[in-house]
UniProtKB/TrEMBL annotation:
Molecular function GO terms recorded: ATP binding; kinase activity
Membrane spanning residue stretches: none
Organism lineage string: Bacteria, Bacillati, Bacillota, Clostridia, Lachnospirales
Record keyword Endoplasmic reticulum present: no
Protein name, entry field: Diacylglycerol kinase family lipid kinase
Keywords: ATP-binding, Kinase, Lipid biosynthesis, Lipid metabolism, Nucleotide-binding, Phospholipid biosynthesis, Phospholipid metabolism, Transferase
One of the protein's GO biological processes: phospholipid biosynthetic process
Organism in which the protein naturally occurs: Blautia obeum
InterPro entries per record: ATP-NAD_kinase_N, Diacylglycerol/lipid_kinase, Diacylglycerol_kinase_cat_dom, Lipid_Phosphate_FormReg, NAD/diacylglycerol_kinase_sf, YegS/DAGK_C
Length: 307
């Protein structure tokens, strides 16, 4: 039995249309499945929690997220015990950083074929973000500052829906990024990694904690990150001029930004981030609020990922 949690509003409403095509394939192949549609932000967490509530070694669950990168973190956040599920993903969003990092098919039909192929799943780390509002999982990255500010503004601007309809959705990230960079005020930050490695910075534009190599629609911020090595990769952009940040960002598409002075990369299993200023925070591109501090750690259990 396959359990599909579908975000019909992904890709500006095209998610529902894409799912109809996939459903036809499932019915044609006589696949046993159940479908659950999200109706509002956070709904996938509740659906996932309900579906997996009985999961155990003798009754494992195969759970498939159908949506964008944000749908993945909601579905995983609802799972009570990740060791009892097999997880699959069908992309119907616009970012697809998860597919890049996991080397999954970006075309929904091909992704469904992979899930139904019976291939052996691989272990994937699922980090835990903890802040004042509680704890939740993510699959790709979380961050504070510039990158989170872009995610936060993109999520509320009507421009994204308009540009997505004409196939130019990624342009909104460029426009918003330029605006955020223009008005962003860097903040002093302190990072405490694995309880004993303390790093202090005076003018941080952003800090991203990565489980995958990519975030933000293809920026290869942590070129050596692996989603199955049991470590978090952390990038800090500190004490650069705004023109230099602007020059640095395009090189990040190729993972060459690490040559710039002011780019710092770390590896750890746990990190506490403290910012002097309250700044936007994101997890897998979804706003996690405006915060001064939060923690990230590698979860105790890995999930079996169909890849």
């Amino acid at each position: 039995m396959y359990y599909f949690i579908v975000n019909p509003n992904s890709r500006s409403g095209k998610g529902a249309l894409i799912w109809k095509g996939l459903e036809g394939i499932l019915n044609e192949r006589n696949v046993e499945y159940k479908t659950f549609f999200t109706e509002y932000r956070g709904h996938a967490v509740l659906l996932s929690e309900s579906i997996t509530s009985y999961a155990a070694p003798e009754t494992p669950v195969t759970l498939i997220a159908v949506g964008g990168d944000g749908t993945i973190q909601e579905v995983l956040s609802g799972v009570r015990d990740l060791s009892y599920i097999t997880f699959g993903y069908i992309p119907t969003g616009s970012g697809n950083d998860f597919c890049r990092g996991m080397k999954l098919p970006a075309e929904p039909g091909e992704a469904l074929d992979l899930i139904l192929s019976g291939c052996r799943p691989h272990p994937m780390d699922v980090p835990v973000l903890t802040c004042g509002t509680g704890s939740s999982h993510f699959a790709i990255s979380c961050g504070i500052g510039f990158d989170a500010g872009v995610c936060h503004e993109v999520s509320v601007t009507p421009m994204k829906k308009i540009l997505n309809r004409i196939g130019l959705g990624k342009l909104v990230y460029l426009f918003v990024a330029l605006k955020q960079l223009l008005f962003l005020k860097p903040s002093p930050m302190t990072l405490v990694m694995d309880d004993d490695n303390v790093q202090q910075f005076s003018k941080v534009y952003f800090t991203a904690v990565m489980n995958q190599k990519y975030e933000g629609g293809g920026f290869k911020f942590c070129p050596n990150a692996s989603p199955s090595d049991g470590y978090l990769d952390v990038i800090v952009v500190d004490s650069l001029s705004k023109p230099k940040v602007l020059c640095c960002l395009p090189t990040a598409f190729f993972g060459k930004h690490t040559i710039f002075h002011g780019i710092h990369i770390f590896r750890c299993k746990k990190i506490d981030i403290h910012s002097d200023l309250a700044l936007p925070v994101h997890k897998d591109g979804e706003s996690a609020g405006i915060l001064k501090e939060f923690s990230v750690s590698i979860g105790a259990a890995q999930v079996r990922m169909i890849s």
